[in-house]
Amino acid sequence: MARWESRESAVSAADAGLRAIAWTPSNTYDLDKAATFRASAIDALDVSPRGRRRGRRALEFADGRAQRPGESISRIRLDELGFASPSLQVAVDGPRGKTYWLDFGLDEANAWGEFDGKVKYRELADTSGRSSREVVEAEKRREDWIRGTTGRAVVRWGWEHISDAAALGRRLAAFGVRPGPRP
């Protein structure tokens, strides 16, 4: 798949494979397991020169901390826009011992990024037994806490913003979030 599919499909699949191998039940990412898996996948590319460079590029970019394809594609778009590699699944201490997880730490822009797919709030309501309204209110309190305690902007985007790099760039720029200079 890494050889022949679009970069978006290849990276999404590789991210999912790495997540299955290296994400632990305690919400940590085993870098050694991820590196071993990635190396074996890259070695498998050597059976044929066709698509090898493309496959290597997708596998080297892959990161199992991405939870869903929208996050994988968002990372690709951020890279295309010139952002440094974002921190993924970043923990922020919340009130009363809670931990809040954010999809992206855009450290160079002093901002957080959250990819919200169309079903996120419905899924949260279904799994928590709360109403959609309660889920949205809790999410607002969470975001307020994160902004207030970290001093960073929180920018949310969805599928319509990752159709191409320009669309995500416009969304981020609307919040004053731009990539820093690359070394």
Task: Please describe what this structure looks like.
The protein is an alpha+beta fold and 183 residues long. It has two domains: 7-65, no CATH class; 80-174, no CATH class. The protein is built from seven helices and four strands, in the order H-H-H-H-E-E-E-H-H-E-H. The protein has helices at 7-22, 31-44, 52-61, 69-81, 120-128, 132-150, 165-174; strands spanning 87-93, 99-106, 111-115, 153-157. The protein has a four-stranded mixed sheet, sandwiched between helices. Strand 2 (99-106) and strand 3 (111-115) form a beta hairpin. Helix 1 packs across helix 3 (52-61) and helix 4 crosses helix 7. It is globular, with a radius of gyration of 17 Å. The relative contact order is 0.13.
Specify the biggest β-sheet.
4 strands, mixed
Q: Strand percentage, roughly?
A: 5-15%
| DSSP helix fraction | 40-55%
Number of domains: 2
Overall strand count: 4
Weakly predicted, low-confidence segments: none
Give the rounded overall mean pLDDT: 91
> Secondary-structure element order, as H and E?
HHHHEEEHHEH
Structural class, from secondary structure content?
Answer: alpha+beta
Number of helical stretches of at least 4 residues: 7
